[in-house]
Design a protein that fits this description.
This protein has one domain: Na+/H+ antiporter like fold, CATH 1.20.1530. It is mostly helical and 317 residues long. It is globular and about 55 Å long. It has helices at 2-26, 32-57, 65-93, 100-108, 112-124, 126-155, 161-171, 173-186, 193-216, 227-252, 257-268, 274-281, 286-314. It starts with a helix and ends with a helix. 81% of the residues lie in helices and 0% in strands.
């Protein structure tokens, strides 16, 4: 019963905020234009402030660098293995070329930017939060580069590839927030107290607003065209792959709580909304991508709950 209540406490606030966002959209409080502007506000302004604040405020909770190295290397291994296996296996079963990059990216790229930070803090405290922030900074460039390569390769738009990868990494405001936070750590610099309060208050807005907007983006489209493929993607993304990776981390690598929690969220979070955005940009299969994003988000409220219970039962978190 204790493990069940622990999982409820972890998941319930997020689920409530998501459905509040969905209700506000249905009632007409959130317009499509507002959702677009709020998305831009979160990812161009509030999330860079959030990751900066996590590193700045959590400097005294930094663990040893060996822990960070293990977690980041594991995340890199997950990305590289998933992409290589996907490029070998997926084309054998998915014959529609424009669906292939959507399927591959859907299987390994979760919404870690949004889920990783609040859930890491909720489940493991400040030390886990700082580790999740470091993971975000370390994996974003690789995730972006690999995603653009895949979509360009399978849709034939290879002329956009190198230029787009470079500018996406350089222009990403979240990377700049991380770099600024790290620089103040290394130089042991502190902001004036009045500015600390301002940055802290802005950082607190990012996560609840982002979840509200995400809830407002629920669009239940027809799934008939890709019903079988969608079911397989959700089965692998939300159940099989997280279970395999978590069993490996717990029983083979024997990772501690601080390392395991960010990895758990990295492999179990629902498919990132960037999958849909890239499918539109590269003329892939946006209908499939949109359904994967929406239904993985919906069903992940159940699967993440189950995995939290499972890990708590094992004493891993």
């Amino acid at each position: 019963m204790y493990h069940f209540l622990f999982a409820v406490k972890a998941m319930f606030p997020t689920v409530c905020i998501l459905f509040c966002g969905y209700g506000l959209k249905k009632k007409g409080v959130f317009s499509e234009e507002f959702l677009k502007q709020a998305d831009k506000l979160c990812f161009s302004f509030l999330f860079p402030i959030l990751v900066f604040w996590n590193l700045y405020h959590g400097r005294n909770s930094m663990g040893n660098y060996e822990q960070y190295g293990k977690v980041i290397l594991f995340a890199y291994a997950v990305i590289i293995f998933s992409v290589m296996a996907g490029m070998v296996i997926v084309p054998r079963f998915v014959k529609e070329r424009k669906c292939i990059p959507v399927v591959i990216q859907s299987l390994y790229r979760g919404n870690f930017m949004l889920y990783g930070l609040p859930f890491s803090e909720m489940l493991g405290g400040t030390e886990c939060l700082v580790m999740a922030t470091a993971m975000t900074a370390a994996t974003l460039p690789l995730l972006n580069a690999v995603a653009i390569f895949q979509f360009a390769y399978y849709t034939g738009k290879t002329d956009q590839r190198k230029k787009t990868v470079f500018f996406n990494i350089i222009k990403n405001p979240i990377i700049w927030g991380v770099l600024l936070g790290l620089l103040l750590q290394w130089w042991d610099l502190y902001l004036p107290q009045v500015l600390e309060v301002t940055v802290s208050d802005l950082a607190k807005i990012a996560t609840p607003l982002a979840f509200l907007v995400l809830g407002g983006r629920f669009h239940f489209r027809s799934v008939e065209k890709h019903k079988g493929l969608l079911s397989i993607i959700l089965l692998f993304k939300l159940w099989i792959m997280p279970l395999v990776y978590l069993v490996f981390c717990v029983y083979v690598l024997k990772l501690g709580k601080t390392e395991l929690i960010p990895i758990f969220i990295f492999v179990a979070a629902p498919t990132a909304i960037t999958t849909y955005q890239l499918a539109l940009q590269y003329d892939a299969e946006p209908e499939l991508a949109g359904n994967v994003v929406v239904y993985s988000l919906l069903f992940s409220t159940v699967t993440m709950f189950v995995f939290i219970c499972f890990l708590k039962y094992l004493g891993a978190i």
